[in-house]
Design goal:
This protein has 421 residues and is an alpha/beta fold. Helices cover 44% and strands 17% of the residues. The longest helix has 17 residues.
Amino acid sequence: MNQMNTKNTVGMEDIVYAHHVLKEVIVRTPLQRDKILSDRYDCNVYLKREDLQVVRSFKIRGAYHWIRTLSAEECARGIVCASAGNHAQGVAFSCNALQIQGKIFMPSTTPRQKVTQVKLFGGSYVEVILTGDTFDDAYAEAVQTCEQSGMIFIHPFDDPKIVAGNGTVGMEILESMDGGADYIFVTVGGGGLAAGVGTYVKTISPATKVIGVEPAGAPSLSEAIANNEPVTLENMDKFVDGAAVKRVGELTSAICREVLDDVLLVPEGKVCTSILDLYNENAIVAEPAGALPIAALDLYREQIRGKNVVCVISGGNNDIDRMQEIKERSLIYEGLKHYFTVNFPQRAGALREFLDHVLGPNDDITRFEYTKKHNKDNGPALVGIELKCREDYVPLIERMEKKGFQYTELNKDPVLFNLLI
């Protein structure tokens, strides 16, 4: 990556101090060698299990470290934060532990499980306000509240104390690695975790490659690098809620430009496949942002062969209600689920012909509905088909065309897909 000559405002001594402060509350999460992933990629894959942290994510590190350093006068004024979920839990836990009143602004789209956990950790010390559709909406209202009330704003990523607290993840990784780490893959949202981990790792082990991983639908750091400064994304896929940030931090992007060796973009569907694999193969419940580093390994398959590789599982706050959507996105990404609108010929037995002569022996119709409820004879049908293997797709299309069925592939038309599916 191109380097930028900017003063790194967070140093190793800041991270060491944060580590001392955090001993009061955090769990020193395990670094576990994963045999399944190690065999799959022909290397040693270690998982830094921040999903096992006291609030099920790394976010408590930066939040508690910052709040713990506030003066008595600042604590009396109270604190405010904006978060898509995990930072809110870290702040809520800190408010309760340090007996400080706080207001927590969260997007209205935040998974219910995360909202419930924030209220649980904060107890009577926090008030949760749901507002807007994105983190940036919640952020704007939180900042306005601080300006009006004089309360202290605890930024989720763009502050030296947040970065230093997050850097303790990197400190623990290197202290736990007997043979050293060749690669460390870390999620990038606002950039606080990657900046902190990268700062410590590059200071202690410059040869270690630190790789940032962003969701393809929210490439805020990639855009900042391309434009030599942070930019606000016009459009963003909010699915990877823990890493879907419209604008990466000023401080964090500057640090990341210095300490990251590469930034990868991973499609949301691939993230979903990794979530399911982690659960089915390892009994690990990872949220989308937590699974990003695992999903990125395929992009570095050749480089990591025979190496010691660490993936930071940054959080495990995944709402069980989302699992059906996660499975659906995974199947579509893997080429196993396809949606069509099909115009059936106006003749008797057309539907039976489709079932008998178009569907393959292992194909399964998972959805079927007429788009015109009151005139089924003249309207196309919405058909969802799940395949056993992706190689069955081409024969399916060939049979549909051979039999004269007119169709539209919704998977290839985002507008129609979002409208109908």
